[in-house]
Each structure stands twice: as C-alpha cells, then as structure tokens.
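The records we work with from here on pair a chain with its fold. Each token is a code from a learned vocabulary of local backbone shapes. A record is reproduced here so that you can trace the correspondence yourselves:

_____
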Amino acid sequence: MNKVLCKFGLESSKLVVSRYLSVSASNKTKYTCKLLVVGGGSGGCTVAAKFSRRLKKGSVIVLEPSSDHYYQPLFTLVGAGVTSVAATRRDAASVLPSNAVWIQDSAKSIKPSQNVVITSRGDEISYEYAVIAAGLKNDYDKIAHQACPQYTPRSTRRRPGRTSGASKAGRRCSHSPTRPSSVPGRRRRSPTWLMLTLIRKT
C-alpha cells in the first residue's frame, strides 16, 4: 500500500487554505487537499481513517454537514425494540479521524473535470483524488399504506413493539424493496425474524 501511495505522490501532500475577495457579503474559502471524502457516514469515515493514517496531517478533507453520526446497522435492533436510537448516535467529531480536516458543510456541486467541489456556503475545495460517499436519498413518499421504514433515526423510533398487539390480531406483511438500498440485510432481520420473536414473546 505504501508503494502505491508513493507512486501517486500521496505521501507528500499538505492542506492549503487561502482567502480571496468575493462580491458576496462574506469572503469564501478555498481549500486544497490530496484526498477529498464527500460524506462522513460509516463509508466515508472508513476511507478517511485509512488514508489519513498514511498521509500527512491535513492531507484529507471530509465534507459532512451533520454533527451527528449514526451507526445504521443498529437500526434493525432499534426497530425490534432491542436497543434505543440513542445507542446508535455518536458525535461526528468523535468518529472522524483527527488527522483529517472536517468541513461541516454539504456539496452543492461537483466538477470532476476541474477537480473541484463547491459547498453550500460557496467555498471551493480543490482535490487530487475524491471519494463520493454521500449515501442514498430516501424517497418515503413511494412507500404505500403507511409502512414504517427503518433507514433514519426518526422513522426507526416508531418501534414495532408498540404495534405488536395489532400484528397478533391480524396479518403482518414485511416488504423488501427491489431497488438498491443501504444495508440490504436489515430489511429481513428486523421486520421478519426479530419481530417474529418479539410477537411470540408478547
């Protein structure tokens, strides 16, 4: 791995931050880095941690707007009433690598031909390499019959244990979407097997 990094010059990078005049009310910031990671979820954290250990401090930038980091695989256990939403949350600052630079903002536009990302605040990040790990956009409006998804902390809080009585009185249906989704295994773990165990116990 070190030989590969040396081949691409990843061992000799440093973060460059500069200011330039803007016609807007506030000045914009220009950043330059060796590796830019867009998204601070589990995937983005993993990539940033791996390369920030091998590069000089400040060579990696993570672009992530949220101050909360959620470990999504635990959402299945929350949905079945085994644990709480609070157990899935950590401060983003505590899970992002300390050698990386965290910019708490989101990407407004990505210009791969120029190796530039523009943030929502209008700042500009120039990079040599980029990893896009922004995740998926959930479209819950396409879920019919008031189905309860388990892909966000808010929806996961509707713990199925509260409706187990209704499930025993009628028929319960677990649906697995055909389109790509994050952590596909969770679609069966919580709705099917964990909930079946919960219903049998209540």
In short: Helices lie at 2-7, 42-52, 75-79, 92-95, 153-156, 164-169, 186-201. The domain at 2-132 is CATH 3.50.50.60 (FAD/NAD(P)-binding domain).
